[in-house]
Design brief:
Number of domains: 1
Distance between the termini: 37 Å
CATH architecture: 4-Layer Sandwich
Helix content: 25-40%
Strand order of the largest sheet: 2-3-4-5-6-7-8
Radius of gyration: 18 Å
Structural class: alpha/beta
CATH topology: Metallo-beta-lactamase, Chain A
Number of helices: 7
Shape: globular
Largest sheet: 7 strands, mixed
Oligomer: single chain
CATH class: Alpha Beta
Length: 291
């Protein structure tokens, strides 16, 4: 498949949709450098004059980079929308809220509920790790209970709203972005889907995503090359199936179950980065660690 982008040491900004005329919706992605704890993707959707930012990054440092990106776009920021309840999607809000005090931060009811329930514990865990780049104040989004956003007449739909698998869909360009459903080029974080049923729902959602026949899928987290079409969906599906099989085999033994899962997954995907994500996810899903 044709490569669209190669990861670099520096944080990257990628123009995803080339403007055919001034009325087209333009998507611009920001991803932190490869040394980031979580290489989460933020997207700035822009019309002729206005813009919406989707997701705010994990660190204050990368939140500041988003401020710069928005200002350089010369667009009027109308909204910041958070597509998932994990801290790497909203910890970077602090500089954005400061720079754009009149812009509302919005999200769905289920995501807000998750943030409210977990934000203090997440900050306690990740604050010392982020150090000076940790937020000193957490912004909780306001409720926006609708499944379609409109920007200058362009529709951006929220698919699977109210579930762990929620993601954004731009029908006019057949583009998928946002949320935690899709990962590419690194070990998949599974610590937040701790039951076979939850992981089955996740895989079913990915199958539904494939049925949309997207032209571009921008993973919520990815490392390395961004590839065309639904490669990242296939990768995530295959990974989850392999992980499920590894869990089933590991649970047949009395001890060191997580070590068995980790060994199996590293054998299946020897070149993938994100080993610490695999280790924590394996410990959580074998019941050796609470998360």
């Amino acid at each position: 498949m044709k490569k669209l982008m190669t990861a670099s040491m520096a944080a990257s900004v990628l123009l995803l949709a080339t403007q055919v005329n001034a009325a087209d919706l333009q998507l611009q992605a920001y991803k932190p450098d490869q040394n980031a704890i979580f290489p989460v993707t933020s997207v700035l959707a822009s019309g002729e004059k206005d813009a919406i930012l989707f997701d705010a990054q994990f660190s204050v440092k990368d939140g500041e980079a988003l401020v710069d990106m928005i200002k350089k776009s010369n667009k009027d920021l109308k909204m910041i929308y958070i597509t998932a309840g994990d801290p790497d999607y909203y910890f970077g809000l602090q500089p954005l809220v400061k720079a754009f005090p009149n812009v509302k931060v919005m999200s769905s009811p289920s995501i807000i509920e998750h943030i409210e329930a977990t934000k203090d514990a997440k900050l306690k865990h990740w604050g010392p790790i982020l150090g000076k780049h940790a937020p000193t104040k957490i912004t909780v989004p306001q409720t926006l209970d609708q499944s379609t956003l409109t920007l200058e007449g362009h529709k951006i739909e929220i698919k699977e709203m109210g579930t762990h698998q929620a993601y954004m869909w731009v029908p006019e360009s057949k583009t998928v972005f946002g949320g935690v459903s899709v990962t590419s080029g690194m070990h998949v974080w599974t610590a937040d889907t701790q039951t076979k049923e939850a992981r089955s729902d996740w895989m079913q959602s990915l199958e539904h995503m494939k049925q949309l026949k997207p032209n571009l899928v921008l993973p919520g987290h990815y490392s390395g090359n961004l590839l065309k079409k639904d490669y990242a969906v296939d990768f995530t599906l295959s990974y989850l199936k392999t992980f499920e099989q590894a869990l089933d085999e590991a649970k047949k033994q009395d001890s060191k179950q997580s070590e068995k899962v980790i060994s199996t997954m590293k054998s299946a995907y020897p070149a993938l980065p994100g080993g610490s994500d695999l280790e924590l996810s394996s410990q959580v899903n074998t019941g050796e660690m609470k998360w």
